[in-house]
Design a protein that fits this description.
The complex is a heterodimer of chains A (123) and B (131). With 123 residues, chain A is of the alpha+beta class. Helix content of chain A is 16%, strand content 41%. The N and C termini of chain A lie far apart (85 Å). The chains are: A alpha+beta (123), B alpha+beta (131). At the A-B interface, strand 1, strand 4 and strand 7 of A face strand 1 and strand 6 of B.
Chain lengths: 123, 131
């Protein structure tokens, strides 16, 4: 056997061995997967004061007080529901917090059991 | 003479081969292939969720509810991928889930919840983007 033939034989055997070795692995790829959970914080857990401002038997506005400075910049939304109708309004809490008066879009009639809901959104 | 020697050698090699094979086991194998790859998020940049609240007289009201969550900070590497957003209570109970596909442009995902979720109950939000 000539030197060239020997080299060819060794090369073929090496290549064959490589192919057999590669067959033991899988061609495997993965798509991306990202997940996260975060808390939705409250700007305050303290009690707020709520005062209805009346005009001729209707609730024209609501004043929410004792808003802490941590709520500065938040949007305060207030809704008055008198059991028959409801009306809403919103205002931005000023930089120092404190009291915010929210004017109702339509002044609902005052009743003995008005329900007032409010939410602070942001900042 | 050479032919005789050759024949003897061939015979010995055959016998050796047979004896050699007799010492082996009959063994087969199921296939086994393995690989490891990294499962990465489509972006590392921070995202932020903001809430749009509205008054709802009907259930889950009367009260303020969340019907839309806007997520900002989306990177281009997360475009056109399936997402799931969950609003949950402090105890981890799901209040509502919304699914969809991230947009193919911009940095904002607008997620709509139907039915709406009580705003007072929302204390956590989870987001997963895959694909």
């Amino acid at each position: 056997m000539s030197t060239l033939r020997r080299i060819l034989v060794v090369t073929l055997v090496t290549v064959a061995g490589t192919v057999v070795g590669a067959a033991a692995s899988l061609n495997f790829a993965s798509g991306s997967l990202g997940a996260a959970t975060t808390a939705t914080p409250r700007c305050t857990a303290a009690a707020l004061t709520v005062l209805q401002n009346l005009t001729a038997g209707t609730v024209t506005s609501v004043t929410v007080g004792a808003i802490p400075v941590a709520c500065a910049g938040a949007t305060l939304q207030v809704t008055v529901n008198n059991g028959v109708a409801n009306s809403s309004g919103s205002a931005v809490v000023p930089g120092g917090g404190g009291a915010v008066t929210v004017t109702m879009a339509v002044a609902p009639a005052v009743t003995a059991a008005d329900q007032i809901d409010l939410v602070l959104v942001g900042p | 003479m050479k032919r005789i020697v050759g024949a003897v050698l061939a015979g010995l090699m055959t016998v050796g081969l047979v004896f050699g094979m007799a010492a082996s086991l009959n063994l087969t194998s199921d296939s086994l292939g393995s690989a490891t790859t990294v499962v990465a998020a489509c972006q590392a940049g921070a995202m932020n969720a903001t809430y749009t609240s509205a008054y709802t007289a009907a259930a889950p009201g009367p009260g303020y509810t969340v019907g839309t969550v806007t997520i900002t900070g989306l990177a281009a590497t997360c475009y056109l991928k399936p997402y799931r957003v969950t609003l949950a209570t402090a105890a981890g109970a799901s209040l509502g889930e919304a699914t969809g596909t991230t947009p193919g442009a911009g940095t904002t995902i607008v997620v709509t919840f139907a039915p709406v979720v009580s705003a007072a109950s929302v204390t956590a939000i989870s987001v997963v983007i895959s694909g």
